[in-house]
Each structure stands twice: as structure tokens, then as C-alpha cells.
Amino acid sequence: MNENENITSEEITETEVTVYDEKPSNTGLKVALGLGAAALVGTAVYKFAVKPVIAKFKKKKDVIIVDSENSEDDGNVAESDDAEEKK
Q1: Cα–Cα distance measured from residue 85 to residue 87, given in angstroms and rounded to the nearest whole number
Q2: Rounded to the nearest 5 degrees, what angle is found at the Cα of 55, between the Cα atoms of 53 and 56?
Q3: What is the 3-state secondary structure (H, E, C) of 50-70?
Q4: What are phi and psi of 41, to 5 degrees?
Q5: C-alpha distances in Å from residue 70, one per residue of 13, 57, 62, 73
Q6: Which pLDDT belongs to residue 4?
Q7: Which of 16, 25, 33, 45 has the fewest C-beta atoms under 10 angstroms from its C-beta?
Q8: Radius of gyration of the CA atoms of the chain, in A
Q9: CA torsion sign, 38 to 39 to 40 to 44?
């Protein structure tokens, strides 16, 4: 019995060591970089492509509106200008 007591009284500790051979994936960093790049590209596209196209269409629309207003008033405006010049 004495031998059994010796065996049970001795404590054998086992340690488990986990070795990771893989590098960390840095998924969070990749997502942040992707979102940042998308924001920069979106801003650049808006500034250099979308905004000038919108301005071009607005200018074209304003020119059409001004031309149509001038074509309606051409007869009246010309008469009033002639009348003022004659006085």
C-alpha cells in the first residue's frame, strides 16, 4: 500500500502547448483597408465624373430654358428696343 500511496501522492503535471504555424489573417485590417479604399474611390468618382456631368446637364437645361424664353419674347423685346431708340 505504501507504494500505491507514493504513486498517487506524486503529481504529474502535463502541459499542453499549442503551436500555431499560420500567420494571423488580419481580417479586420483587410476590411478596414477595403472600406477606406472604397470611400476614396467613390469620392474621386463623384468629384471628377458625376459632378461635372450633372453640371453639364444643368447648364444645357438652363440654356434651353433661356433660349425658349428669348424666342417667345423676341418680338416684344425688339419692338420695345426700337421704340426707345426712336424717342
Answers
A1: 6
A2: 65
A3: HHHHHHHHHHHHHHHHHHHHH
A4: -65, -40
A5: 98, 20, 12, 5
A6: 55
A7: 16
A8: 42
A9: positive
pLDDT digits (tens, 9 = 90+) for 31-65: 999 999 999 999 999 999 999 999 999 998 888 87
In the DSSP assignment, the letter for residue 23 is P
What would the grid cell of residue 11 be?
503529481
What grid cell was written down for 69? Answer: 424664353
Cell of 84: 426707345
Nearest CA among 72, 54, 50, 73 for reference residue 62: 54
70: which residues sit within 8 A by CB, 6+ positions away? 77
Cell matching residue 8: 498517487
